[in-house]
Structure formats: C-alpha cells, structure tokens
Amino acid sequence: MMTPHQIEQALDRVLLSVLKPGRYSGGEHNQIAKDWARIDLRVALGFPDIYDLGMSNLGLAILYKAINDQPDMLAERAYCPWLDMEAAMRREGIPLYSLETKHALADFDLIGLTLPYEQLHSNVLNFLELAQLPLRAADRDETHPLVIAGGHACYNPEPMADFIDAFLIGEGEEAIVDVARCIQQWKREGKPGGKEELLNRVAAIDGFYVPSFYSVDYHSDGTIARVTPARASARFPVLKRIVPMLPPPVTRFIVPFVDITHNRAPIEIMRGCTRGCRFCHAGMVTRPVRERPVEEVVEAVGRMIRETGFEQIALLSLSSSDYTRIGELVKAIGEKYANENLDISLPSLRIESFSVDLMDALKDARRSGFTLAPEAATERMREIINKPISTEQVLTTAREIYSRGWHTIKLYFMIGHPMETLDDVRAIAELCKAVLAEGKKVLGKRAQVNAGVSTFVPKPHTPFQWAKVADVHTIREKQAILKRELRGPGLKLNWNNPEETQLEAWFSRGDRRLGKVLLEAHYRGAKFDAWMDMFDMKVWRESFAAAGLDLEFYNGRERAEDEIFPWDHIDAAVKKKFLLDDWRWSKRGQTRVDCRDHCFACGILPKFKDLRRETPDEAWECPVVTPIARRGQLLEANIIPLTLVQP
User: Which domain holds residue 615?
Assistant: First the structure.
C-alpha cells in the first residue's frame, strides 16, 4: 500500500491531466488535518459519489464535526473519483485516499459510508475496490478497516448485506462516536477475538445492525419465511437510533476550491414531519419531530457567515412551514442580517399563502423561481397519498406567488402512484396550464411553469410498501401523455428514465440475494447509476439473469398483507400495523390529519419513552408534536398535549 508521501508524488503526476483537480487535492479552508502520530482512532468518512455531491451533503459534515470534536480521534474525507481520475489512479496504482493527509483508506480503523439513496450501491463496490480492499465483508478481517454504512437507504440494508460489516439504522451524530470508541477500546486491548469479537461489541451498540449475525430462510415462492438472529448479541428487531435533541449545528463548513452542487451553508431547523404523506419515506423514518430553537439558528447563521464566507444560507427541514416559530425565525434573520446581502432559502414549504408570506419576508431580490410540490394533480389522488390540498388552494397560492414578483413556479409531481388512472395523469397537464393562466393574468408572457415529473417508488417503512412498482411500459405511456399535453410558451416538462426507477426500487425493496446481482453488475462495469449517461439497464438485466433472480418478483407485484418484508427486523419505530391500516385507508381515499392535531398511535410513544411524560390524567404527550429543545431540558410550554388514540 502506498504511503502518503508516495500518493502525493503520484498525484503530482496526474492531477493536471484530469477535470477539476480541486476535487482531489484537499487543503480547503476549514478542513481539519490532525497529527496521525498523536491519534489512535482514525475514521474515513466516505460519500460514494463525486466530490461535488458529497461536499453538499449535510449528514457527512455533521459526522465530520462529531468525530473531530473528540481530541483523541480524527475524521478525514474520501469521495469517488470521476472516470478520468479513476483511470489515472488505476494506471498509477494510487489507492483511494483521504483528502486531508493523503493516507490510503486501508490505513484507517473505520470507514463510514453515507448512503442517502439506493443508486449509490454500485458505487460502494467501486469505492472499496479503488481503496484496494476486499469487496465482501466476509473476506475482510481485523487487519482491515471496519466498514459501516448509514443514511436513508440503509433502512433496508439487506441488498448491501454482503459488503458492509455493520449498518447504522437511524441518526448518526452520537452513534458514530460510540462505534469509534468501541473500536478504539478493542484496539487498545490488543484486538482480542479478532473481527468476530469486534462485531459482537458493535452489535451491542444501540442502532447498529450486523447482517452477518442473522440468517434468512425463504419460502418456495421466493418470499421470506423467517429472519433468525444467529448470535446472542444480535438484537431482534434492531431499533433505529435517534438523538433526543438536535446537537449544536455545524457552522465551520469546509469551503471548496471548485463549484459544487450547493455552494451554500445549510442548517437543519427541524428534523421529522407530522404530515403523514403515505409516499414519503423520510417523513416516516425521521419521526419524532425535533426543532432547533430560533435563537440557536439565528446565532448559527452569523457564525456560518464569519467562518465560511458563504452568502447563501439554506434553512432545511422536511416541512419548513410547520416549524413552530417559523415567522419569528424569518423575521429575526431578516432583521439581524439585513445588511449582509444574504440569499436565504427556505425549501419544503406547504402550498398555502403563508408560505408566500415567508418567502416574501426573506426579501429575495432575484425572485427567480418558487417551488411547490402537489405530488398529484387531482384531489382524489391527493387523498390517496394523504396530501389533501384542494386544487383551488394550489391556484390561490400560485396567484399570490406571481403577484409578488416571481416569474416561474416549479411544480413537482409523481406518476405511478397506487390506484392512479390516465385521467389523473392528464390532470397534471391541466393543473400546470391553470397555474400558468394565473401567472399570465399578472405577468403576461413572462410567466413560466416548470413541471418536474418523477416516477413513484413504494419505499420501505411507509404505508405504500405493499404496493407494486409501475412497470416501464405504463410509465412511458403516462410520460407520452404529458409530453404531448405540456407544450407551448411558458411550459416546460422534465421527466426521469423509468428504467432508473426500477433500479431504485429493486434495491430499496429487495432482499440480501440482490448482493449477487450487485456483484455481477460491478464486474460488468456498473457505477454512477444515478447519472443518466452512465446508467445501463442492459447490465442490470444481465446481472439478474446471471444471479438466477427474477426482476419482476421484486417490483411487479402487490405484496400480501401478511408477507414478511426483507426489512421487517429493522424497526423504524413506526408500527407495521399502523402502516398497514394506513395502506387500507389509502384504498378508501381516507385521509389522516396532521399528527399535531390528532395522535394515531404510530408507535413512537412506546419506543422512545424518554421523549414523553405522563400527565396526571394519563393522557400522553406525543413527541411527534415537537418538544423544542434547549441543551439539557425541554421547553414545556411548547409541548402540545394530545390524547393517545388507538387506530
């Protein structure tokens, strides 16, 4: 394995021959490079896509801070090289290395991979190969780094079970330090019992799933018969990890030398959502809702400006309008930083006039585009997906947007929802035209509507996990309708490749047998599947055939209500019974109100008892309704009492 000095010498030979050498050089403002000689626990944080995307990932920045805040640990970064740099690395024998000190990843004790979406799975194998590590977890021993993975794509870890030593289910701010401490102690003891003993210790940490400690049996029809823990240390089920109160935010972001996807400083103002949209994986798995205090956000914005120089600040959440003190927050930021020439973005706003008021208060002089996500165009479909917004509400909000100076409204929809008809698809075009008509009344020909239409994937741990995935032919038929109907001045349509949706669905809904498919695809050159010009469906069809598996088994069938899912032993703290009831409700077009207004006993209460307290009248207070956290205590005034009602 190359030393850091040898890697640096080799980089001197190749960097000037590749696109964007700043992706591979390190040395950025605010990076943290500790003295390896003084540190005995070293963590490589990897994002299995290019630097431009990985540097924009807030989760990785949070983990980087969490580890480097420990005086006896260090964290460094690694990303997938683009094709030109990969070819140079293979030619020169350069292993995948950390940006901070140019150490080969094999020199680290722990490699932590962030997997926010399933299209990155093929990149993980390429990442490990470039790191000159065995691909299969079973082929790595105590001389290799422990490879863990976390992120939303890990709520069904099974397709990656052959390659990852342990998965973190849930939130990583505290868990990444816990697993690092575990490895550090094991090392200091002389690595007793080898890798098997280390995995036993990791499996005992809350939120960690070690797939090799479980066996899976199948019925003759290919469905799962049972999942069985094979070790005493193996939890069953594995309950997700949460942080009861959001820790202090990252403010000292690394400032890249090159343009990245988001050149901005993000801060998470709220985690979780109470809306209960049936298609939304993030809304289900990030429960309970936790909010960051206004004062902390306002102060953090100032630190971000001073420490990074960024002029764009993103206030992130799944539903920003639901942040309890959102009006106060926007006003406070506007007043305190009025002379800083800041561009403040507030994504994920509800479709209502209040959202327009919020954006108006941010005083965005550019007024380029305002984004709304109806997800479906008919009220019937919006009731099925539990996003009950009236068409008149959409049009009223559009009028408010155009009247306040925005020229373009971006509307996001999904096709392929359960129970969707072609009339529901045609309604997308009709709604876009109706919104544009509102704009023309105010702005004339300057009004624009951009429609983004993606294909729905029924995700694990959601009420739609029983639904089948719409087939490619059906999606192309629906896309053809939209391409035909959404034409003309002021209208623009963007759509996705439905074959890419099939890949996402296989790996979000599949079992551990898909490891064979993934390995076959890797040997056939699969990588960067999230990139339209790199995805090759032929490779995946050949890989399924080579593994002896049926593509349609995973996507082309509605699953029986009593079927054991590959992810059932992963507990996202929302009960399967609640999800099944909601799936049945969707078939009746029956909606649920916001959790802030009524508790439906989703399962959070008994799973995280430290986040609620019982009142004298035995009414329970649901943590989903957001205790606003101070360091070390709860603001009781902001906990809304709700009666626990069994569905």
Answer: 577-638
Same domain, 480 and 602: no
| Residue 68 CB contacts under 8 Å (≥ 6 apart), including other chains | 32, 34, 74, 75
In angstroms, how far apart are the furthest CA atoms of the chain? Answer: 75
Q: How far is residue 51 from each of residues 3, 24, 54, 99, 614, measured CA to CA in Å?
A: 22, 8, 5, 10, 48
Does 161 fall in a domain?
Answer: yes
Do residues 197 and 220 both lie within one domain? yes
pLDDT beneath 50, residues of the chain:
612-621, 623-647
Euclidean distance between CA atoms 383 and 389, whole angstroms: 8
CA–CA dist 14, 92 (Å, integer):
9
Q: What pTM was computed for the model?
A: 0.93
56 with 82, same domain: the answer is yes
CATH number of the domain enclosing 430:
3.30.750.200
Per DSSP, which regions of 310-349 are E strands? 312-316, 343-345
Residue 360 maps to a domain: no
How many residues are present in the chain? Answer: 647
228 in helix, strand or coil? strand
Alpha-carbon torsion, ordered 201, 206, 207, 212, to 10 deg: 30
Q: What is the pLDDT of residues 539-597, one digit of tens each?
A: 999 999 999 999 999 999 999 999 999 999 999 999 999 999 999 999 999 999 998 88
Q: Are strands 312-316 and 343-345 parallel, antiparallel or unpaired?
A: parallel
Domain count, the chain: 3
Exposure of 629 in the CB half-sphere (CA atoms within 13 A)? 20
Say whether both 564 and 584 belong to one domain: no
Rounded to a whole number, what is the distance in angstroms from the first to the last CA of the chain? 59
Say what the pLDDT of residue 232 is: 86
Q: Are 64 and 32 in contact (CB under 8 A)?
A: yes
User: Omega of the bond prior to 134 within 30 degrees of 0, cis?
Assistant: no
Which CATH number fits the domain that encloses residue 96? 3.40.50.280
Cα distances from 647 to residues 51, 568, 582, 603, in angstroms, run 46, 21, 9, 11
Taking the C-alpha atoms of residue 191 and residue 179, their distance in angstroms, rounded to an integer, is 15
Q: What's the pLDDT score for residue 597?
A: 87
> Is residue 418 domain-shared with residue 562, that is, in the same domain?
yes
Are 555 and 468 in contact, with CB atoms under 8 Å apart? yes
The verdict on 595 and 501 lying in the same domain is no
- Per-residue confidence (pLDDT) for residue 16, from 0 to 100: 94
Q: Left, alpha or beta for 564 (phi > 0: left; psi -120 to 50: alpha)? A: beta
Residue with tokens 């807030």: 58
Residue 17, both tokens: 């021959």
Cα distance between residue 145 and residue 50, in whole Å: 22
> What does the pLDDT read at residue 96?
98
| Inside any domain, residue 84 | yes
Calpha distance 48→158 (Å, rounded): 18
CB 645 within 8 A of CB 599: yes
pLDDT of 616 reads: 34
Per the domain annotation, does 305 fall within a domain? no
CB atoms under 10 Å from CB of 306, counted, come to 10
Identity (one letter) of the amino acid at 294? V
